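R.M. (postdoc): so does anyone remember the format we settled on? I'll just put the structure tokens first.
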């Protein structure tokens, strides 16, 4: 695995930079929200905090299932895009969008609630994404590497069996799926308790 990372270091750097650009773009997008959009989002967020504070139970099993399903759909798309040449730019789009989603979420929370928003982001957004982000970027690099191999194999008359690279690519995706399972468990169970812990401090922000 270390050798694989070393061989694909330029791709790792490229997708990481693209992801960071997406995060910055997502954070900046918060400032582009209209007053009506901000008001609506604040209303929904305040309602969510009040429900948690009043002791309404969140179905951890359902949260886990939804999170795992979303993560697996994401890497399945990446895997499918990696099987074709035209899918190469779409992999980059997914990495950028993942950054935008995270940047917007954290940017909005911090913009609305200052340090309390940062605290909520640390317990509700950050823990699982410490696993999700590297896993998705790893899948993206594997997909791009395989797609580039296809280009060389088909258009540059490179010899070699495509079966072994394909199996390595698929194995990496499955292993990352295992990490995403752990991330979904973290999101579905651990993060729920952490949110209950910090919510009393946040309810006051919304009255």
């Amino acid at each position: 695995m270390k050798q694989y990372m070393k061989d694909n270091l330029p791709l790792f750097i490229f997708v990481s930079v693209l992801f960071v650009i997406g995060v910055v773009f997502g954070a900046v997008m918060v400032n582009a929200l209209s007053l009506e959009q901000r008001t609506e989002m604040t209303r929904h967020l305040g309602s969510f905090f009040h429900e948690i504070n009043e002791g309404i139970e969140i179905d951890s099993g359902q949260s886990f299932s939804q999170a795992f399903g979303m993560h697996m759909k994401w890497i399945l798309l990446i895997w499918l895009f990696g099987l074709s040449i035209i899918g190469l730019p779409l992999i980059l789009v997914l990495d950028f969008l993942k950054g935008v989603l995270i940047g917007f979420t954290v940017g909005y929370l911090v913009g609305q609630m200052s340090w309390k928003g940062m605290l909520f982001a640390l317990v509700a957004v950050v823990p699982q994404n410490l696993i999700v982000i590297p896993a998705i970027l790893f899948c993206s690099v594997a997909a791009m590497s395989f797609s580039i191999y296809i280009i060389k194999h088909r258009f540059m008359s490179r010899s070699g069996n495509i079966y072994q690279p394909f199996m390595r690519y698929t194995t990496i995706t499955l292993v990352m799926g295992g990490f995403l399972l752990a991330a979904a468990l973290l999101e579905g169970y651990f993060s729920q308790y952490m949110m209950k812990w910090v919510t009393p401090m946040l309810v006051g922000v919304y009255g």
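R.M.: ...and that's the designed sequence above, right after the tokens. Also worth knowing: The chain has one domain: 2-21+74-202. The two ends are 51 Å apart (CA to CA).
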